[in-house]
Amino acid sequence: GGGGGGGGGAGVPPPPSTSTTSASAEQVLTVQCGACHQACRVKIAGFGDCRFTCPCGRINQFSVSDKPKSVMENIPVEYPDYWQTKDAGDRKFLQETSAVKAAVQEILDKTWKDQRTRDASIHGRTGKMEKFEVVAVQRNENPKLWVPYYRLRHQLTKRVEGCEVHTCKTNLGDDGADNAILARANLCAEANEFYLFHGTKPSAVKAICDDDFELRMAGGNAGTLYGPGLYFAESSSKSDEYADDDKEGIFAGLYAMILCRVTCGNMHYTDEVRPNVQSLVDSCIRDKTHQSILGDREKCRGTYREFIVFDKDQAYPEYVIIYRQGAPGGLEGGSPPVSAFEPFLSQEACGSRTEVCVDDGAELSYGEVRASVHSSLAASAAISA
């Protein structure tokens, strides 16, 4: 779909699996058909994805955001000093140095523990726990994802000023090798920004590094203990429970984690064995008193802490870690070359899509989203760490 003009059409909400929140009243937008360019008046009932059928017969989709465009776009963006990318038109995926590879290995080792959870059975992880050997580390420099992450982090830093500051196992650097990453990251501690793990498989990193996490894919890999959000782990051994290996190709037998920057903001802490999920999720989505959930299963079950956010712009997938399970020894023939990742991380266009952003005080002012997620809890599951 596209944006702008007059005509007719009715907004159709997407399937239940998509992430859409409702507003208190129906509104009308004027949207241009992406095929014939006819202007259509579309009724919408909230924020998120919306589809409409143009009189020409083509189905269009667009997204309405509750983030004020005028405010967000006026925030100047800075890129990390150690990145080669310095402007929005640049996109790089780079092999990291041996020092950074050693730092990642140390972070994996420090956060590993010989402890499985019930989720490990998802991939048949019932045998002896094994430590991990890092094979390769690549850095994802993607302005398309960094810009919204940076701007939202900037806003949250101001909004949550004075909130409780938490610690995280991945961020507890000392004088070890992990300082090669932590010292240069300049993480925003006052907004509870951490490096956290997300388990996946080598051939799946393309979609995440190119186009970010998909909340609408929730349910593909885990349960909903803390609601339909994006789940991250501070322990490599927890994230490994959701990682998978490629069965063929150059990455056969190898696993992948993504080390992400995650801005957690004001965290809703819970150490309950059976938490009130609706109350936790409402505090983040409806009431907006918190921006994340910290589920302390380490305290109540002796397993791991889980970090959950409900806005994909709160996470940035910065480092792809390709690793194998088992004792160190190196891959036969050496590590895969950077070129081996190109089929997974090509810079293809992801299709046309119009982002319609509502300005505070503009003609179409929707105010605060005051939506419960009672219905979405029934239809969605969690993307797990």
Question: Could you characterize what this model shows?
Answer:
Strands 1, 2, 3, 4 and 14 form a five-stranded mixed beta sheet that branches. A five-stranded antiparallel beta sheet has the order 5-6-13-9-7, with helices on both faces. It has 385 residues and is of the alpha+beta class. Strand 3 and strand 4 form a beta hairpin. It is built from nine helices and 14 strands. The protein is globular and about 60 Å long. Helices cover 19% and strands 26% of the residues. The N terminus and C terminus are likely disordered. The two termini are 33 Å apart.
Descriptive terms for the model:
385 residues; alpha+beta; 14 strands; disordered C terminus; 5-stranded mixed sheet
Topology:
Elements: E1 11-12, E2 20-32, E3 39-53, E4 59-65, H1 69-73, E5 92-95, H2 98-111, E6 132-141, H3 143-159, H4 179-185, E7 193-200, H5 205-211, E8 230-233, H6 236-239, E9 255-263, E10 267-270, H7 277-285, E11 292-296, H8 297-301, E12 305-309, E13 315-325, E14 354-357, H9 374-379
Parallel strand pairs: 4-14, 10-11
Antiparallel strand pairs: 1-3, 2-3, 3-4, 5-6, 6-13, 7-9, 8-12, 9-13, 11-12
